[in-house]
What we know:
- The chain is an alpha/beta fold.
- It has nine helices and five strands; from the N terminus they run E-H-E-H-H-H-E-H-E-H-H-H-E-H.
- It has helices spanning 16-27, 34-42, 46-53, 55-69, 89-92, 102-108, 111-115, 123-140, 152-162, and strands spanning 5-9, 30-33, 75-78, 93-99, 143-146.
- A five-stranded parallel beta sheet has the order 2-3-1-4-5, sandwiched between helices.
Amino acid sequence: MMRDNIVFIGFMGCGKSTMARKLAIELDRIFLDSDLLIEAKFNQSINEIFENKGEYFFRKQEQKLADFFILCQNTCIASGGGFINVKNLEKIGLSIYLRADFEYLKKRLNKDEIAKRPLFFDEIKAKKLYNERIKIYENKADVILDIENKSIDELIRELKKVVK
Length: 164
């Protein structure tokens, strides 16, 4: 059975959580956020999980959520930036890639926002990771939405033409 979930994918800071929440409200769907669910499960921030348990542990938690999301229906899901590496992403639902250049994303994030993202601490490493992930995002996406210099309302209007 094909799921009617919508999964937002993209690099850190592209607005996956904001878009998923807004679209969930607009379409009267359930909003889920993979990073927030992992943080809630362990009562720790992503940074603390990375520090205390490591990235490998965190990625295993993402896979558990991906397996759960396959069972969900009528959701808008905000995924973490590395969620594209889970198995069976395509079985969860429609994947929407929020695309923007690295420099644009960097400008969107203030120091507090960067501090929440352990893989963005080192800008050189973050840019390398961004470049490694671009093609994966494009290949995994059912829909690519260019987000640069567009308001959330403009983006939601574009999305509503594609999803119901």
